[in-house]
Write a structure and sequence with these properties.
The protein has four helices and six strands; from the N terminus they run H-H-E-E-H-E-E-E-E-H. Strands 2-1-6-5-4-3 form a six-stranded mixed beta sheet. By secondary structure, the chain is an alpha+beta fold. 31% of the residues lie in helices and 41% in strands. The longest helix is centred in the middle third of the chain and has 15 residues.
Length: 136
């Protein structure tokens, strides 16, 4: 997509994912609506629903702490852009407590009329792998 005509939601989603990959939680949370809902699907220790930028920031901080800073967005593989949503397929690499997780995530971001992220849902490619990595 040409930079001059890039969809503003896509740009925001790219910025969010870049900040997340660079461990810049404060910068990532600046892109969130005050009413954001962040949902990590699954039955592992880091799954759950988090409300507001503060809870999202705390959750992302727990992720970085658990992975001792090894959370790495290897590649933003593909994008799907709609009217109010952007989905991205991301290759992720993490290490924790002698375990390694390499796999794909789908981040589904929803936007409000101001262009802020109002909803994020994170899906793991393989829930069983996430449960083994994070614990129940």
């Amino acid at each position: 997509m040409d930079q001059a005509v890039k969809d503003p939601h896509l740009k925001c989603a790219e910025d969010f994912m870049t900040h997340l990959g660079d461990h810049e939680i404060d910068e990532a949370t600046k892109l969130l609506s005050p009413t954001v809902t962040y949902r990590v699907v699954g039955s592992h220790a880091l799954a759950g629903t988090f409300f507001g930028p503060e809870e999202v920031s705390a959750h992302l901080g727990r992720l970085l702490e658990f992975t001792q800073g090894t959370f790495d967005v290897l590649k933003l593989e593909d994008w799907l852009v709609g009217e109010s949503h952007v989905a991205t397929v991301v290759d992720i690499n993490m290490r924790a407590q002698g375990r390694v997780f390499i796999g794909k995530h789908i981040f589904l971001l929803q936007f409000d009329t101001k262009g802020l992220v109002t909803g994020i849902t994170v899906f793991f490619e393989n829930e069983a792998s996430a449960r083994r990595f994070f614990g129940p």
